[in-house]
User: What shape does this take?
Amino acid sequence: IKPNSGAFRLGMTVVESEPDLRRAIEVATKLGPSVLVQQYIPGVDAHVSVLGGRALEVIESIPGVLRESLPPLSFSTSQRTYIVPARFSADVRSALRSTAELVYRTVGCRGLSRCDFRVMNGKQIVFLEVNVQHTIRPRSMAHHSAMATGLDMNDLVTAILNDRWRPERRAESN
Assistant: This one.
């Protein structure tokens, strides 16, 4: 159960029994009037930012803060660790990027978006959602994914603006 609006798992509860349902709805509705009910899919979270139709580096996120040695672009918040690049096989990372690019084109995204997936058993990919209002602050998944792909913050912002203001995009807006 999670709020229909919001981000970063705020207000989300995994319900394991009927008595937990009422409490989960109470938690979610504190953040908005409507809630989403989704089937829980076990696995590891994967995130793929797509910039102008091109997938950037795959990020793996896990609950908690890892103290082990991680790749240099990895980072932690108070609740999650983001591993950049993700530790999935090259084939899984490639499939995640291809799927994210397909979603971007199919949905009609512009500029920067992010697709969220769950990877089950290290190989089975389940698409969860696409986020079209993606943040680009310095400690964001988009920024770290872009850096892993060889782009700095200026490159990232310039690419977003160039994609948004391509001549065919301006014609669509008018």
Observations:
- The longest strand covers residues 54-63.
- The chain has a mean pLDDT of 88.
